[in-house]
Amino acid sequence: xxxxxxxxxxxxxxxxxxxxxxxxxxxxxxxxxxxxxxxxxxxxxxxxxxxxxxxxxxxxxxxxxxxxxxxxxxxxxxxxxxxxxxxxxxxxxxxxxxxxxxxxxxxxxxxxxxxxxxxxxxxxxxxxxxxxxxxxxxxxxxxxxxxxxxxxxxxxxxxxxxxxxxxxxxxxxxxxxxxxxxxxxxxxxxxxxxxxxxxxxxxxxxxxxxxxxxxxxxxxxxxxxxxxxxxxxxxxxxxxxxxxxxxxxxxxxxxxxxxxxxxxxxxxxxxxxxxxxxxxxxxxxxxxxxxxxxxxxxxxxxxxxxxxxxxxxxxxxxxxxxxxxxxxxxxxxxxxxxxxxxxxxxxxxxxxxxxxxxxxxxxxxxxxxxxxxxxxxxxxxxxxxxxxxxxxxxxxxxxxxxxxxxxxxxxxx
Length: 413
Hints:
Elements: H1 2-30, H2 33-41, H3 49-98, H4 101-119, H5 121-128, H6 134-142, H7 145-164, H8 173-192, H9 197-207, H10 221-224, H11 228-256, H12 262-277, H13 280-289, H14 292-309, H15 316-343, H16 350-379, H17 381-410
Helix pairs in contact: 1-4, 1-5, 1-6, 1-7, 1-8, 1-9, 2-3, 3-4, 3-8, 3-16, 5-6, 5-9, 6-13, 6-15, 7-8, 7-12, 11-12, 11-14, 11-15, 11-16, 11-17, 12-15, 13-14, 13-15, 14-15, 14-17, 16-17
């Protein structure tokens, strides 16, 4: 078992490194997506379309990645995904240089496909660790986004100045940096993720047979998500992601409309992404110690508070605090939900079911991103934030009901 624990630590470290590099690239680009969308399309209503395309591509490819990961392993799957990211971000860089909205959306498709592959890496960490350490294993990968939250937004400005000196629109700089970071991440995964987590997961399952979900057959997805715990996990991730995207995607454009420069916008987005990832180590350990439901409950409540706080003022400090809370609430829902879902699956059900979960998460994200532009253009930022708060109430109430029923079922007769 000592050897398995050592391999689990190594695999989790590699996954943390690739998450750090990839998230820095994705966040650098996402900081500017709504601005680029408006600039290239010449319509404010279309500001959320690039992120929506990016999320839709990620959603539909997530289910595919589940099967790919089973067929060729986690290492080869992640490498393929990061390579798609290199190509996609290069295409977006070129699109901005030639001022083509259509080509830019094509690059967003490839970047979305890459992101879905990277996000599934958190489950690879869960399956190679002991069952009682799954929460912290997922959090140790997700926390890699802290690096991205610091590096990503702040490279947008210097990178923009660099490409501006080449006679290219400064908005293209972040996408060039993203391509470089994805390329480094692909090398790290291909060289370091050995042995493949898929093989280690089988050995871990043999060591802890009493913790496995036992069935005579691999259950269909409908049967899995009919189980209350699996449904709660799904709703917490899907709706938590939608709420986060609704507010975050349009904040850059909202600030631009109040005469904030790239440095101010980057600072607020950095605050948000710091909240998304920096406290993963806390949420993961709380999920193992207090239970998955409590962590999801805290996250849902924080999302509601964040949405309301975002309406207070368009100034940098109030928005920075609100967006930080938005990221923190998302983190607790995401880590708690991911861990709860991992608990419900047998080894043969994991990659396929987790891919389907991320498909629905991506679809919800895309819907949120697309709606954000239209709600913002027609009703304003504050109304969009209130709508988001209402959506965040759904997982809050669902978790309360599930936990209360679960508590009653455990009471002695």
